[in-house]
Protein: iodotyrosine deiodinase
Amino acid sequence: MALLSVLTPVLAVVLCLVIGFMLVKSRETETASTASREKSTAASKTDYRPWVDQDLQDDTETREREGEDADWVDHNEEEDLPHVPYSPPRYPEETMLERSKDLYNLLNQRRSVRFISPEPVPREVIDNVIRTAGTAPSGAHTEPWTFVVVSDPETKHQIRQIVEEEEEVNYRQRMGDKWVNDLARLRTNWIKEYLDVAPYLVLIFKQTYGMLPNGKKKTHYYNEISVSISCGILLAALQNVGLVTVTSTPLNCGPQLRLLLKRPANEKLLMLLPVGYPASDATVPDLKRKPLEEIIVHI
Ligand SMILES: Cc1cc2nc3c(=O)[nH]c(=O)nc-3n(C[C@H](O)[C@H](O)[C@H](O)COP(=O)(O)O)c2cc1C
Structure:
């Protein structure tokens, strides 16, 4: 009994210490989880990048969908491919140097031009430019591109209406101050007169998968990278013939434009290029390009 009465205050102290420790711990955990919740909300706000997340998603993952394997072609079903000799021209070093400078000088003059002349452009030139774009490499030679060339004034106007409607929402609501400020420097906004004026609108679709005559689907590996390379070649080809364009990626317009142009569901809009001669009073922002030392690393 005496021992118990001596131990009681000790036990009470120990009990208080344990309860106190548990309280402190639980508060620490709560603070940590609130902080992490706040951090993740902030991160998801800053990570919200609709120009990456919405329009430009690559649908290669559709290949992985469960239960759809029977719809897809097995690569073994494709025929064997003969190989042929290849010997492109080889130039003396001096000529190489000259050609490398010439092409650089030509492409260094390329600018995104937002003021395009309505003057007609020969259709055959456009066909050749697109033929050139079609020489791009592509994942497993799937050539996952469709170039829709629009010259019909009514369709161009419908495209303009779709793009301007979405762009206005992008500028006013979706994109945030940073994006709007970055674009203000370039004096670009949601009014896209060039969509009516340019003699051609070229809408480039990436085919997220292919459709074979037997109805099976074919994987289009790296379709977005392949089509983007093709677009780069297209820009160079336009520059080569003295035509101008402005690279545009109309956000959230893809599905509407795809339906308007009656493209199938496996095609997603990647880029819209108005094409023509520059307007006689065209201006461009006085941008400077990074010097070689800033973009090259020799190892
Ligand atoms: C992927 C991509 C998307 C672009 N989207 C737009 C656009 O929606 N509207 C626009 O006016 N310019 C757009 N541009 C053009 C850029 O603003 C332009 O390339 C950049 O300011 C550099 O100018 P330069 O093309 O004259 O060298 C885009 C360019 C790229 C590569």
Observations:
- Residues 111-112, 114, 186, 188, 246-249, 284, 287 surround flavin mononucleotide (CB under 6 Å).
- The radius of gyration is 29 Å.
- The chain is about 45% helix and 10% strand.
- Strands lie at 145-150, 200-207, 209-211, 217-219, 267-275.
